[in-house]
Structure of UDP-N-acetylglucosamine 3-dehydrogenase:
Amino acid sequence: MVIKVGIIGSGFIAEHHCFAFSQIPGVKIIGISSLDQDSALKLIEKFNIAGPYFKDYHDLLSQVCDAISICLPNSLHHEVSLAALSQGKHIFIEKPLARNVAEGLEIVKAAQKAKKTIFYCENNIYAPSFVKAKELVDGGAIGKIYMGRGREHHSGPHSAWFYKQKLAGGGALIDLGIHDIACLVWYLNEDVEKVFCQTSIVSPDRGEFGQCEVEDNAMGILYFENGAQVSIEESWTAPSSFDVKIELYGTKGQIIVNPSHMAPLEVFSENGFGYAVEKASTTKGWTFPIPAESWTFGYPQEMQHFINCIVEERIPYTDGKFGLKILAIVEAMYKSTQSGKIEVVFYPKIE
Amino acid sequence: MVIKVGIIGSGFIAEHHCFAFSQIPGVKIIGISSLDQDSALKLIEKFNIAGPYFKDYHDLLSQVCDAISICLPNSLHHEVSLAALSQGKHIFIEKPLARNVAEGLEIVKAAQKAKKTIFYCENNIYAPSFVKAKELVDGGAIGKIYMGRGREHHSGPHSAWFYKQKLAGGGALIDLGIHDIACLVWYLNEDVEKVFCQTSIVSPDRGEFGQCEVEDNAMGILYFENGAQVSIEESWTAPSSFDVKIELYGTKGQIIVNPSHMAPLEVFSENGFGYAVEKASTTKGWTFPIPAESWTFGYPQEMQHFINCIVEERIPYTDGKFGLKILAIVEAMYKSTQSGKIEVVFYPKIE
Amino acid sequence: MVIKVGIIGSGFIAEHHCFAFSQIPGVKIIGISSLDQDSALKLIEKFNIAGPYFKDYHDLLSQVCDAISICLPNSLHHEVSLAALSQGKHIFIEKPLARNVAEGLEIVKAAQKAKKTIFYCENNIYAPSFVKAKELVDGGAIGKIYMGRGREHHSGPHSAWFYKQKLAGGGALIDLGIHDIACLVWYLNEDVEKVFCQTSIVSPDRGEFGQCEVEDNAMGILYFENGAQVSIEESWTAPSSFDVKIELYGTKGQIIVNPSHMAPLEVFSENGFGYAVEKASTTKGWTFPIPAESWTFGYPQEMQHFINCIVEERIPYTDGKFGLKILAIVEAMYKSTQSGKIEVVFYPKIE
Amino acid sequence: MVIKVGIIGSGFIAEHHCFAFSQIPGVKIIGISSLDQDSALKLIEKFNIAGPYFKDYHDLLSQVCDAISICLPNSLHHEVSLAALSQGKHIFIEKPLARNVAEGLEIVKAAQKAKKTIFYCENNIYAPSFVKAKELVDGGAIGKIYMGRGREHHSGPHSAWFYKQKLAGGGALIDLGIHDIACLVWYLNEDVEKVFCQTSIVSPDRGEFGQCEVEDNAMGILYFENGAQVSIEESWTAPSSFDVKIELYGTKGQIIVNPSHMAPLEVFSENGFGYAVEKASTTKGWTFPIPAESWTFGYPQEMQHFINCIVEERIPYTDGKFGLKILAIVEAMYKSTQSGKIEVVFYPKIE
């Protein structure tokens, strides 16, 4: 059985999807649609993709295929998701589901109406170190989690649209925080009842990407229904390199997960070398290169799970409803940044 | 020149003081006052202390000496400090300065009136790893700090009074948080303008120590005048062992300080051994024993600095005003736990 | 194209092979031969293997298939390899190639005669952290390697035959050292000219496995043609858990690889949990569980490479000649254990 | 009671001694003798030393004092020790005791005759992380040690004489290896029976210091009387920074000590900063700065112990006989580098 996938977009994350699909037997990429013909053609060549290039994504949607990968700026998630679902395609959609709950809710309802599945791309939930930690938590290794912390940081995204409110719907919180929130909800297996958050813009001038209109730093706290309080810290102004850390404190122990810095490999190099990890500012001196980066961060495992779900007609671990729930938490956090107080999370009703 | 010191109290921290003074040439302990005669006599024997035991602390205060170490429950800081200052003694007072700002302010004013110095015991500021980090920050190694985090945890204090509101004035926040807040203010060298905090009681039943009336967990955020936001996490419900971590994020780099877990020594022992670190729940399996624990956490260096200040008639790095400032931040955080919103810090006016 | 594989043996390493093959599309296991019917049937059930169970391995060899996995005690490598090759099958053979060079040479010559390939199973060379280190070395990150160290240890193997000279051909050196030697030869990309080694038996009584007749500890030094000296340490008497460390020192830097202890995950558990890593003596206290253990140590990647080589008719990175070269080094080291001096390595001539 | 000390030499290690003595109350430095007047005067000023500068060390020896610190190239240890002892002074002598056993034996005998004490400076034995490890070993935490490893490395010494056979008596082995050997003998509390060693010159051209005539790399193995085998690796050609590692493997556990790299402090700095640790090649990127470096490596604790021994008329942990024993092991290792085989250690007879 061959699963046919079309890809819309040709940037950083489209390349991750192409790589992941190329690792999975039984998947055929039937074509790429993008406004940027050059980068799309490069992906087609690099991953030896059978299907052609389409300028207009509607032309791709009119092809026979099972699913569409939506690798586009946040502002286009809503429009393109609705179009793909209305054509009877499953969708693979990168976090966040949309810019806000209102948009996200319409996407989820459209999927219900079309009887198609939203595969919500939250790679960390498929990363092996995170999965092992989840096994330990679920197996009772650390008792009941009452406190925790998530942190993601790097020096800032690699496309201009991330820095613009209208295109992205927010900054470091909706871009990085959404990862931590998803993982923390998954680990605690509880709903977030209330939130608190404040943000700031530390580095407003982003050179070639123009002005940073959105928060480049955010710090907040999630209050879970079981009483746990968990902090999140998100930053687009941290030199060194991409880093993701989770700490979980339970009544019987603790877990620290940090695949980007606690590495099986330490290197001191006077010469430097080609590549250590995403956004590494140098490879000279001491570094902690990540072996098999894409696999370490769960991209191919995520796509493998999604393809299995299509083949076996199962609901993925991370579906549209999950993506919408996380978005509702983010939206309440943005509200708290304005009010300066704890805000209750409102989860949209879905039948 | 010999500096004469009297000690009031004979518990855990009194032993730390006795040890530290015993390391410093030119210091003579002239006596110990305590309600608990047995433990006081043990200290006198263990550290070969010249001076006698006093039941009533007023009898100790009437002796000729330069300074008094106040190693008592928080609720007695106010009364005993005023008594010692009125007798013309300098005071060494363990954190927190008092149970609240009102008490603390009276202590500071009494010291001004008596023209005596309050030596505020915040050992972390004298710990070598923290000092080295401070050098790096002040030398510009990480640029301007815009985000950070402090965390202290262990499984709970070793005396019943810590768990009682009236005796302690609060729980994990005033006991552990006060360390982190002091260090963060020191590192950023900026005032905290606003705060946010929430607390919880995770483990209310404390066995021999009775009910835990105060928060055993606290999570809050400090907002500094320069715009930096820094989280603190404090817990009395974490198994493993005492742990203190500081992370500082600057525009040009980052620093992680963690003397209790990032150790020069890793041990796997099937047999276990005598002592790894304060409140270690086991010494079997992998542990990270702390070499020269008292020194690692800065106790003798702190006392050496204080004695030097007395000899040279200098103001210590951590004086009563500093202790009062930190207490004002804590008090605003307790206010925030009630209001559920950001609270402005009110610093008491002192000439 | 489907690659058909038969498996001889049903112990620890047979399970690794079955798992790896089950991960690779296009591989069909056509049957398992083993003297132990129970464990063979369990593997057939666990991995949903199509083919039947054979008591006599000759019956398996008479089936139509491309390759045979030889998962047997070292003493049977020679006989079974010759039989499989003579039936026109490729062979997958676990390290060591054989008990000694004489046996190994006959296997290599038999493969040449049969025009079949020996796939020599040295999983570390396919482990992602080791591969990343190799990229860095080859890219010049640390300059020329002039010194290094390999160490593997655990508390001892899980089958009685490992402890018997006749069945195993040696102890910790041929069992664990052979991994380190292979990786070090690979990293330095130089031949070993001379060696030195001494061994000992620290724990002769092995309970259910009887007497340990072979060395359970070995320490030696490899002298490479470029002048580099590299130590190896191998132990079957180390509690804690399986550990593999490589350190490489170059004129421009250094690399430390340690996938079994430098983990992306640290856990403190009072309760303990199911599984941390091979031969972990406890899961209580601090542990460093390995996410995706089989993948971390390179087993499925190794088999994927081998299957690719069969499909594409390529020579694997680790073929029979490589296995024989490593065995020649081991043999010289055993000679040194007797002579107490440096011994020259004699590499058998093969056309 | 004031202990009066004279110092001969004014280089790197003389500064360490001056610093250490300045930390110890009750020690008075009565003068410094050195051929290099400038650096001697700088020390006198920096450490506020009371005593004068002497060109000729005999003039210093004729002063009234208790002990002489010998901070000179190895080739002068013999002559100056004999002179100081004959004047009735105790001597503080940096490792190695002398260039070889013959010289060392004469020094020890001269001390016996003069009834004075040789204080052999092996700082690692006084370093807090090493001391803590010793406590654990002696307390049975890891059972009986059967294997181990010592490694010291940096990029090369800071004076020309180290690189010359006649002045130093050897290279990395006698300079760095002597530390590891001393610590390993101390940890195992057993005598070394036999040794093996090989050396090499990796970087012969040492710029301003001229040709490297001695080994800049050494790798050897110590065979203890209890059957333990312990490797040592020493290098003067490792970039990054000074690093010292000890690993001890026992029947019940293991210990890793690494105060120079396993630090309580991790820093990423784009700007760099003043000082991380001895011979750090950069402070940009990730570094592991050492807090309180001199204390971490045991220098002031060592001198404090020595002064205490003088005051209390005790034998130090590390006396001349200990230094001579370590030197005998080194000498056997040099013999092994020539013979290419295991050599028995001959310990000189002393009554």
Notes: The two ends of chain D are 32 Å apart (CA to CA). The longest strand of chain D covers residues 145-153. The CA atoms of residues 262 and 288 of chain D lie 8 Å apart. Chain D has two domains: 3-123+300-319, 125-292+330-339.
